[in-house]
Write a sequence for this structure.
């Protein structure tokens, strides 16, 4: 008898605990696409990226031309001339690798630009989500776009439009 009462009490506590936790979803991609500043930032990043890529391609073409010229003339060059040309090619390729790292590396200008332009938007969204979650008592708010393990979620728990409204971008 004591065992069954304990089991029932334990199940009751577990059910109450499970019901007490409220969950919500947001779709970060959807939210970002509905914020005009995101589109502007994306265009600025894309424009800079294309410009930097063009610089890199120009340098790569120069290195390729130097190598092809070297291959054509290698048999007529002295050892000293060959060594000088090889060093020039290696230096150009090193310059190319350094430029790639400078623009597109983990700490490169592209990463810094993305951080500079996207961080304020992400912070705004985070603060809006936090305010909504606190006001409505959500224990967890998950991003549908990054949560690949979510197979199905009721649209009733998606608060993306509410976040947009809190940010002043009502849909």
């Amino acid at each position: 008898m004591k065992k069954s009462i304990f089991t029932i009490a334990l199940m009751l506590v577990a059910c109450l605990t499970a019901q007490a936790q409220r969950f919500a979803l947001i779709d970060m991609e959807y939210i970002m696409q509905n914020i005009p500043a995101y589109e502007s930032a994306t265009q600025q990043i894309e424009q800079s990226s294309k410009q930097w890529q063009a610089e890199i391609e120009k340098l790569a073409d120069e290195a390729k031309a130097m190598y092809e010229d070297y291959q054509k003339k290698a048999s007529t060059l002295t050892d000293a001339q060959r060594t000088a040309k090889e060093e020039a090619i290696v230096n150009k390729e090193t310059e190319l690798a350094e430029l790639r790292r400078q623009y597109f590396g983990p700490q490169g200008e592209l990463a810094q630009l993305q951080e500079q332009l996207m961080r304020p938007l992400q912070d705004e969204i985070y603060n809006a989500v936090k305010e909504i979650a606190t006001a409505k008592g959500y224990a967890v708010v998950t991003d549908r776009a990054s949560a690949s393990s979510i197979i199905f979620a009721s649209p009733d728990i998606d608060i993306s439009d509410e976040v947009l409204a809190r940010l002043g971008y009502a849909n």
